[in-house]
Amino acid sequence: MSFVNIPLEHKQAALQELGSIKEQFAARHWFPGTSGNLSLRVGEYTPENFHFAITASGKDKSVSTPSDFLFVDQDGRPCETTGLKPSAETLIHCEIYRETGCGAVFHVHTVFNNLVSEYFGEQGAVPIQGLELIKAFNIWEENAAITIPVLPNYAEIPKIAELVSGVLNQSIPGILLRGHGIYAWGKNAFEAKRHLEAFEFIFEYIYRDLLLKK
């Protein structure tokens, strides 16, 4: 499906939903400075052809304006004439969509996800076992164990995007960038939000647990 054939009401609904989520996350202080980015896919999907709305680069996410979002294609190129630039990390979103076929990708910077990603950075993954919030990822076995990949935070975003397919685990909807933040995704915005909230709870738990064990 070409972008022009996606119904206008679907595009408007995506922008409205992203705006609501941006407001909620901003209230939690998950977008320090102008950091972080949110995206939501619209229209039909194939790995070679898809479109999504994403936060524009350099915007204060604590306020809402008509220039908060724009639509891009599978290569991160704007679908419409605009003076807006997509988030600097759009190519990472592109790769996650391409690999998973998901419906939404959310990326935030928090103190806890930064500290945990640094602590486990050399291992390349954060090990987690036995926490209740693992069930948020539809993993229900008792004392379940998972690992969350940690990628190096290169200055060149394409270098990071190239690594996504090598570490992405379809059953674990998240990837950390070391000293940077978390990317979480889901089949829709509700699921991506649930996954992100679960990851953030887990990261805070890990940090506080490490302090208690010192």
From TrEMBL:
Record Pfam families: Aldolase_II
Concerning SMART domains, the annotation shows: Aldolase_II (SM01007)
The Class II aldolase/adducin N-terminal domain is annotated at 16-207
Cofactor(s), names only, from the UniProt record: Zn(2+)
User: Coiled coil where?
Assistant: none
Give one GO term, molecular function aspect: methylthioribulose 1-phosphate dehydratase activity
Q: What class of enzyme is it?
A: lyase
Protein residues bound to Zn(2+): H107, H109
Record's keyword terms, sorted: Amino-acid biosynthesis, Lyase, Metal-binding, Methionine biosynthesis, Zinc
Matches recorded under SUPFAM superfamilies: AraD/HMP-PK domain-like
Pathway where this protein functions: Amino-acid biosynthesis; L-methionine biosynthesis via salvage pathway; L-methionine from S-methyl-5-thio-alpha-D-ribose 1-phosphate: step 2/6
Q: Give the EC number(s) listed in the UniProt record.
A: 4.2.1.109
Which InterPro entries has this protein been placed in?
Answer: Aldolase_II/adducin_N, Aldolase_II/adducin_N_sf, MethylthioRu-1-P_deHdtase_MtnB
CC cofactor note: Binds 1 zinc ion per subunit.
Which residues belong to the signal peptide in this entry?
A: none
Q: Which reaction does it catalyse?
A: 5-(methylsulfanyl)-D-ribulose 1-phosphate = 5-methylsulfanyl-2,3-dioxopentyl phosphate + H2O
Looking up Gene3D superfamilies in the UniProt record yields: Class II aldolase/adducin N-terminal domain
Similarity-based family: Belongs to the aldolase class II family. MtnB subfamily.
Q: What does this protein do?
A: Catalyzes the dehydration of methylthioribulose-1-phosphate (MTRu-1-P) into 2,3-diketo-5-methylthiopentyl-1-phosphate (DK-MTP-1-P).
* Protein name in UniProt: Methylthioribulose-1-phosphate dehydratase
- Organism expressing this protein natively: Paenibacillus nicotianae
Gene that this polypeptide is encoded by? mtnB
